[in-house]
TrEMBL record:
Start-end of Gly residues biased regions: 1-21, 85-106
SUPFAM superfamilies: WD40 repeat-like
InterPro entries, per database record: WD40/YVTN_repeat-like_dom_sf, WD40_repeat_dom_sf, WD40_rpt, WDR86-like
Protein name: Uncharacterized protein
Feature: compositional bias, Low complexity: 22-37
Alphabetized PROSITE patterns for the sequence: WD_REPEATS_2
WD repeats: 216-248, 264-303, 305-334
SMART domains recorded: WD40
Compositional bias of kind Polar residues: 51-64
Gene3D superfamilies in UniProt: YVTN repeat-like/Quinoprotein amine dehydrogenase
Length: 445
């Protein structure tokens, strides 16, 4: 298969100015790089970038979901485990477990986390949550088709309060959100009687500087995943396709560069999650398969058939490892192959499998819905997971998967972690809940 955009190359930096946009906030500039490069009005881009798949041996504890995912407030500690070889030289889970571990049912509320508040509650189920570290704002998308902007005047206050300052009807059910390079991208599908351009699925894009909007049609059904890297916008949908979109610098609009289906070596089931790095794009589907795509050529270089026994619901990338979660109740750790090559970017067997359990110590039947990474006030990496049918968010310390307790939340369907050491969940009742890590205890002596 040819490369994503027929040979065109993108990249570079932008510089720019702040302004107003029709999502109800002032957009402030910063100096981060954009995955989309420089375009017409040189608006200053923002957003996470995928890490290089080949990391330095002292890589940090930051998690990466690709573009749009915000890093932790706390500075990471150097990592002493990150040597090469099977499992990346890391000891995953409790020792002597043979590559598998079982986490007992949800534990008590963590003593090192304080509950800040609950906001919203208008019964409009939150389906997507995005943190904007540059402006300390939160965006949530909902089942009823609203994009809400939440603002806090002082996130570092003892008891910060989040207010909904904007509520925009998107004319469709919001499936996914991405903020990158001065663009807000909203993956959605038509809820009936809405925007004809979204039938039956599409992406609404708003250029935050100018307020200019356009719709990217084509997906058949839900748009489960959005990501940005290598100068491209990527989307994954219920129709099983991965679509690569290229930005036209003259019009500040995206155009379809490539649509990858099962006939092109893509997925034969709904694409549920996408995670880009500088070298690779990882994708997963409803049948539990994981694929690895080369960012330069656009070719699929590896397929992990049945990487999970059910739907892969979420993936993140952390220190040379792909972490995947599934409705089979497992979290699996995939290490890079000792000698990465076509067909062997990742080891074919997981370096570790963590099996979630219910309160009775039996394998949880509800499955994992969402997952995100955080860093606590002592600079430990912590994984957050929400589970189908549970009223809690579970916390696990990495790489040991030691139980860090649970946060009480009612059927959480969206998770976020980021600025000022805060943790967030969005639930089916439309509630946005917030917690914060307490300051680390000072050493004695």
């Amino acid at each position: 298969m040819d490369n994503w955009d027929g040979g065109r190359g993108y990249g570079g930096r932008g510089g720019g100015r702040g302004g107003r946009n029709n999502f109800g906030r002032s957009y402030n500039n910063n100096n981060s790089r954009s995955s989309f490069g420089t375009y017409q009005d040189s608006y200053q881009p923002r957003g996470g970038r995928g890490n290089n798949y080949q990391h330095d041996s002292r890589s940090n504890n930051n998690f990466d979901r690709g573009s749009g995912h915000n890093g932790s407030y706390y500075q990471p500690r150097p990592d002493s485990y990150n040597s090469r070889g099977r499992g990346g030289g890391r000891t995953w889970g409790p020792r002597n477990t043979g590559g598998r571990g079982r986490g007992r049912g949800p534990g008590p509320e963590p003593e090192d986390i304080e509950f800040l508040g609950i906001y919203g509650g208008d019964k409009d189920a939150i389906t997507a949550l995005l943190l904007d570290a540059a402006t300390s704002q939160i965006y949530t998308g909902s089942k009823e088709g609203f994009l809400r902007t939440w603002r806090c005047s002082n996130p570092t206050a003892p008891k910060p309060v989040w207010e909904c300052v904007s509520k925009v009807d998107m004319d469709g059910v919001v499936d996914s959100l991405l903020l990158e390079g001065g663009f807000m991208c909203v993956g959605m599908h038509n809820k009936g009687g809405g925007n004809p351009a979204l039938q039956p699925g599409g992406i609404k894009v708003c250029h935050l500087e100018s307020g200019k909007q356009h719709v990217l049609p084509g997906h058949q059904g839900q748009v489960h995943a959005l990501a940005a890297a290598g100068g491209m916008l990527f989307s994954g949908g219920q129709d099983g396709s991965i679509r690569a979109w290229r930005l036209d610098p003259g019009t500040a609009c995206f155009a379809l560069a490539k649509s990858i289906t099962a006939q092109d070596g893509g997925h034969a089931a709904a694409v549920t999650t996408l995670v880009p790095t500088d070298r690779f794009l990882f994708s997963a589907d409803f049948h539990g398969n994981i694929k690895v795509w080369d960012m330069q050529s656009g070719q699929c270089v590896q397929t992990l058939d049945k990487g999970h026994g059910s739907v892969v619901t979420d993936m993140i990338f952390w220190q040379n490892h792909l972490i995947s979660a599934s409705l089979d109740s497992n979290v699996r750790i995939w290490a890079e192959a000792e000698k990465p090559a076509p067909g062997a970017v990742l080891d074919r067997e997981p370096a570790y499998t963590h099996v979630a359990q219910d309160a009775q110590g039996k394998p949880a039947t509800g499955g994992i819905l969402k997952m995100t990474g955080a860093v606590d006030s002592a600079n430990n990496a912590v994984l957050l997971t929400s589970h189908n049918g549970e009223h809690a968010v579970r916390l696990w310390e990495l790489p040991s998967f030691a139980d860090r307790g649970q946060l009480r939340a009612s059927d959480p369907r969206a998770l976020g972690a980021g600025f000022a050491g805060m943790l967030f969940s969005g639930d089916m009742q439309g509630n946005l809940k917030a917690w914060r890590w307490k300051p680390a205890a000072m050493p004695v002596g």
